[in-house]
Amino acid sequence: HESKYVFGNTNKDEDIVAIGNIQQLKTNAHNLPSDSAQDFVLFNNLSISYNDLLYQQANTAIKVAKDYLGKSISKSNNKHNVIYSFLKKEPYYSGESLGLAMTLSAISSISKNNDYKNKYSLLQDYCITGSIAHDGAVNSISDQALASKLDTVFYSPFKKVLIPKGNKKQAVAQLDKFKKEYPHRDLEIITVNNIKDSLLTPKLVLKEKISFRNRFKNVLAKRTIVPIIIIAVILFFSAITFLNKDLNPTSLQVNESSIDVYNKSGKKLWAYDFGHNINTNYYNPHPDKPQENKMKFVDINKDGFNELIIATTFSEQSNGGLIVFDNKGQILWNYIENPKNVFSHIGIDDVYINNSIFIFEDRDDVFIVVNMFHRLYFPCHTVIFNSEGKLKGDYWNAGHVYAMDFVDIDDDNEKEIIFGGCDNAHNSAFIGVLEFDNVKGHSPTLNNKYIPYGISKGTEIYYILLPQPKELLNAYRGEVMDITSLPDNNLIVRYNLDSQKQLSVSLILNKEFNIVDFTIPDAYKFNYKKLVGRDFSADYPPKQLQKMFSNFKYWDGEKFVSEPVMSNQNLE
């Protein structure tokens, strides 16, 4: 447990009277399953907030915390359930000055999973106030709020207070007045511009570096930690009762021909009738492919409310696509797949289904990546849109794409798309890399059967066929199911190599796509001994396995080669 306190003001009747109050904010965070569509954030108290400012700050706090911590080793750690609560349940809580405290406590709680590079612990002798922005900046609070909060903390047992740097001038002037009246009292004012300043201040936070070995061991052991952080915050209370104005959609129910959309409290916000039957099983997560998300709630236009992005596939005779709804159920834009007979030369029709949706956020926009699979055969069409529905790029792969991540692999401050799945043209699992601003063409092949008509060669900067050790029991061509980027730009690539899904190999690759390490699941080794009668390690010693799983094939722009190389057709 770690203790901190918070400032507050109380509103009596309908007159606003600034009365300070310090309370403990408790933060409880744990990991959600890897197939979770989004973080789940709960403020476990009554709240009032015009435009839902408090909840916006809570969600912003989780985003900033995850951005600062970077990627964890375990994919299951990418989404979190974070519960904020105050011990006093009677007041209504409001405003945005909880944001800084929410962010710091979230960083401390989430980092203690030990899957991250660093672990942060909050010290116990200071109070916090300030709001947080999406980029991690700490925003100033109002002069009236600051005056009340400094008055409160000055007469409290606390000797330090953390505030936004933009409030420093007023805070110093007010503190000077206090000291003239009470010269024996003292209060240290600590100011910060952004979340990084806060975490680099030894007076506030203890930082412990976690070795890669220990982080990876914890992932393999599936370690679960639910740290609870208690932090002191200065807040405003209200005794006025307000109606629940939570208009932010977070979940939905799929019916026979319609959807019902709800907020986090379970209140129905709106419904939409498609006018024809829906296959409800289509929207359930695939047990072997949890990343096949068919719907996402994301604030793509930064208005403080989630949009619903939902895949549409209503039958095996009609093309699927995508619909984007605003928080009130109005359609912002939609997309219907229309490939125009690109594989008619081998008798494949034009019916595609939306298999998965991925979301990529950068500083300027939010992008939606859609993977469209042919209903029966190998073609996969990856299509990218910006938040307004404008086409940004598309790419055809000769096999299904199941996994995707967005990471800066070449340290140029621009993220690339790393994708993986199955390459039918070469009967192999694969991973590829595309520059986000240059996505077009088709995957590498010399076989016309797998080349879409009228589509140029692809712009991939890497395209790599993964090892296919057919000598292993029950091994077949394989398919990449998961890609996780690490803070040091290493990657964990998980791919299945057997039809029973027991041989799921995890490769650790460096940013040059050389193998660093690999793991073979114990379940496969146990089954091997059961069927063959010998220990797996006796038939496949470590050096032999290392050689087998290092047999990558790299596309150089004309052919596949054994040496690590970029696709030279795209080199400048």
Structure, described:
16% of the residues lie in helices and 35% in strands. The chain is built from nine helices and 37 strands. The protein has an eight-stranded mixed beta sheet with strand order 5-6-4-15-1-9-12-13, sandwiched between helices. Strands 28-29-30-31-36-37 form a six-stranded antiparallel beta sheet, with no helix packed on it. The protein has a four-stranded antiparallel beta sheet with strand order 20-21-22-23, with no helix packed on it. The protein is globular.
Share of β-strand residues: 25-35%
Roughly how many Å is the radius of gyration?
27 Å
Derived structural class: alpha+beta
CATH topology heading of the largest domain: Ribosomal Protein S5, domain 2
What does the average pLDDT come to? 78
Query: Strand tally, please?
Result: 37
Q: How many distinct helices? A: 9
Give the distance, in angstroms, between the N- and C-terminal Cα atoms: 54 Å
Q: CATH first level of the largest domain: which class?
A: Alpha Beta
Side by side, the strands of the main sheet go: 5-6-4-15-1-9-12-13
Give the count of structural domains.
Answer: 2
The multimeric state of the shown protein is: single chain
Looking at the overall shape, the CATH architecture of the largest domain is 2-Layer Sandwich
**In this structure, how is the largest beta sheet organized?**
8 strands, mixed
Give the overall form: globular
